[in-house]
Structures are given as structure tokens and as C-alpha cells.
Amino acid sequence: MSKFKKFIATAIIATSLFGASSSASAVDSKDGAIARAQAKAAFQSEMSTYVSAHRAIMDTLRAANAKSLADFQAALATVTTDAELKAAKDARKAAMTAAVATAKAAKDALVKPAKPAKAVRTPKAPKA
């Protein structure tokens, strides 16, 4: 498990242990706490889906970069003129531009899920 995944898992566990239990018991009824817990679980599921989609986009971009580099290196082995070298460079640049544009469009299409609303504490009655 990567350090980032361990950090995220620790943060989720810490948040659920400290934040949810104390605020749920102190703020409102059992129904409100259940609704918040369900909203939080839905958010975590949506966030997991979002992160997986983002990783897939970035992995595709890395693969396209590796392919364009491999194609460029293969072309370099057969280059004999300056025109062929320029054509190989232009082909690599065009492939990378297309891959970056595709990745940017895919990332822009992703919608980051909104965090569920936090519980609102009722103000204490002033002492007379």
C-alpha cells in the first residue's frame, strides 16, 4: 500500500472516530446522525470513484507519453536526414499534444463530489 493510500485511510478512520461520534451524540437525534453517516458513506464512495477515474486518466496519459517516446526512439534509429529527424520530432510533439488535450478534457469532465453538510449545533440558551 502506498504512503498516500495509508495517509488517506488513516485520515478517514481518524475523522470517523473523532468527528462523527462526538458531533452526532452532542448535536441532534439518532435520525440525524444516521442521515449524516449515510451521507458521509455516500461521499466516501463517490470520492473513491472520482480518485479511481482520475488515476485512470493519468495512467493513460503516462502510457501515451511512453508510447510516443518509444516511437520517437524507434524513428531515431532509422533517421538519415535532417528532414526525417524533424518529422520524427514533430510526430512526437503532435502525439503528446493530442494526449495532453485528451487528458485535460477528461479531467475537466470529472466532477469532484461535494462534501456532506456538517451538523449545526443549536446555541445554548443564555443564563438569566
DSSP, total strands: 0
Number of helices: 3
What is the terminal-to-terminal distance? 57 Å
**Unreliable parts:** 19-26
The structure class reads: mainly alpha
% residues in beta strands: under 5%
Average of per-residue pLDDT values: 83
The shape is rod-shaped
Order of helices and strands: HHH
Major beta-sheet overview: none
Cα gyration radius (Å): 25 Å
Helix content: over 70%
Per-chain topology:
Elements: H1 3-27, H2 30-78, H3 82-109
Helix pairs in contact: 2-3
Task: List its traits.
128 residues, mainly alpha, 0% strand
Short summary:
With 128 residues, the protein is mainly α. It has helices spanning 3-27, 30-78, 82-109. The protein is rod-shaped and about 95 Å long.
Describe the protein's architecture and organization.
- With 128 residues, this protein is mainly alpha-helical.
- Helices cover 80% and strands 0% of the residues.
- The protein is built from 3 helices and no strands.
- The radius of gyration is 25 Å and the shape is rod-shaped.
- The relative contact order is 0.12.
